[in-house]
């Protein structure tokens, strides 16, 4: 599980997977439910072989132990719930990357440690990250747009990082926005492909991705110094 | 439509879309059918909103004007047809890239002209290219593996190109295989994202992708000269 930022706290002990399954009309069914309860219910159902797109509102309601109609008190439809999950995933990934930076040592660049943190989370089977990587291809249009927004946030943050780093290290920088975009998209696409990789390939895949990102970072420095290169 | 290599010739005039739809038990239904007929039938059904994964064997048979059972004379199942389509798409894209190289001028690099040819084909609504870009995410495991094989072929060809170019231009090259992989994956992922782009964004997206590829090519040259950069 990703480290959840303050806004939404989901301690594992409250995950509805631990609750008994409800049956229709069951007397013990909950009357009051929060958005977080529904988010948790959807997360509990997601897995390597269950995408969000394949979940039904009825399944989420059953998992959350509410009547299907109660779902609508919190979300207009499944798309709105999906968008909430994507936003949660974005905030969570931001937290992970920020934490990775604090661990940066003189032996490891910011980029290398961010790539490492991303892949580590991925290989830990993080459901939110899985959602972010997968629904961009199979999700409904509102969910795809939400993922595109999150990717744009990452690109913008990375662009600002690249500018700060270039200033700090006195290196040149060619087209910072395109550089940030290339890195973000490459990390997400290689991450998606690594999802099904066997355990013994994981560290090799992380090293490969780090090398690819290094090619881009070196390229932007070289072209920044000599745009006609 | 992509330029189809010699092995499989599909002149547009033979596409089954021009044929009247068959009805079950229709007396005029074809008795003999080739693999190409089924490939053409599937292609005719594919479109921006119809993925191969969403096609049924029955639909393909109807489009090809045969009884569903006749399908099995040519393909074991829909997956085998899908793999045949992916292989056709791979050969076709190779032809396009080869042709683009012949058009290389002193003002345009091999990489730039290949990226241009790829995006041109994409924006022309090429169904085989669409298949290659989309089924990697939503296809069945055999189809995903077939796409992965095609991507590996492209990577290997590009790696050899990079080696030739580096020798010709007397430039250095850092980790040719990783360089080829980064370029191939970035082109395919940016291509997928460009699929839904409005017409007025198309030339900008092509330029952006060319810039990203240039970052990688420059990076591999710079790191090749100085691996500690």
Describe the structure.
Two copies of one chain form a homodimer. The first copy, chain A, has 229 residues and is mainly α. Chain A has eight helices and no strands. Chain A is elongated and about 65 Å long. Chain A starts with 34 loop residues before the first helix and ends with a helix. The N terminus of chain A is likely disordered. At the A-B interface, helix 5, helix 7 and helix 8 of A face helix 5, helix 7 and helix 8 of B.
Set out the fold topology.
The structure is a homodimer of 229-residue chains.
Chain A: H1 35-45, H2 57-64, H3 78-102, H4 110-123, H5 127-138, H6 141-169, H7 176-194, H8 202-225
- Enumerate how many helices of chain A there are, as a single number: 8
Helix content of chain A: 55-70%
How would you describe the oligomerization state of the chains in this entry? Answer: homodimer
Share in β-strands of chain A: under 5%
Q: Give unreliable regions of chain A as ranges.
A: 1-25
- Going by helix content, strand content and strand pairing, the class of chain A is mainly alpha
3D shape of chain A:
elongated
Order of helices and strands of chain A: HHHHHHHH
Summarize the structure.
2 copies of one chain form a homodimer. The first copy, chain A, is mainly α and 229 residues long. Helix content of chain A is 62%, strand content 0%.
Record keyword descriptors for this entry:
homodimer; 229 residues; mainly alpha; 62% helix; elongated; disordered N terminus
């Amino acid at each position: 599980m990703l480290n959840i930022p303050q806004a939404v706290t989901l301690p594992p002990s409250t995950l509805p997977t631990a609750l008994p399954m409800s049956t229709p009309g069951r007397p013990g069914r909950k009357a009051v439910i929060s958005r977080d309860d529904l988010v948790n219910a959807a997360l509990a159902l997601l897995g390597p072989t269950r995408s969000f797109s394949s979940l039904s509102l009825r399944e989420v309601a059953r998992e959350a132990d509410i009547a299907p109609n109660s779902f609508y008190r919190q979300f207009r439809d499944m798309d709105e719930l999906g968008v909430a999950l994507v936003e949660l995933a974005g905030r969570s990934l931001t937290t992970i990357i920020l934490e990775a930076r604090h661990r940066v040592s003189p032996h490891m660049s910011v980029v290398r440690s961010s790539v490492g943190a991303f892949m580590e989370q991925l290989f830990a089977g993080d459901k939110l990250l899985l959602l972010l990587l997968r629904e961009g291809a199979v999700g409904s249009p509102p969910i795809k747009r939400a993922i595109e927004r999150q990717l744009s946030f990452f690109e913008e943050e990375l662009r600002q990082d690249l500018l700060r780093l270039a200033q700090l290290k006195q290196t040149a920088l060619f087209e910072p926005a395109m550089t940030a975009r290339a890195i973000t998209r490459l990390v997400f696409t290689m991450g998606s492909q690594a999802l099904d990789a066997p355990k013994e390939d994981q560290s090799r895949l992380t090293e490969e991705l780090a090398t690819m990102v290094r090619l881009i970072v070196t390229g932007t420095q070289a072209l920044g110094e000599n745009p006609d290169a």
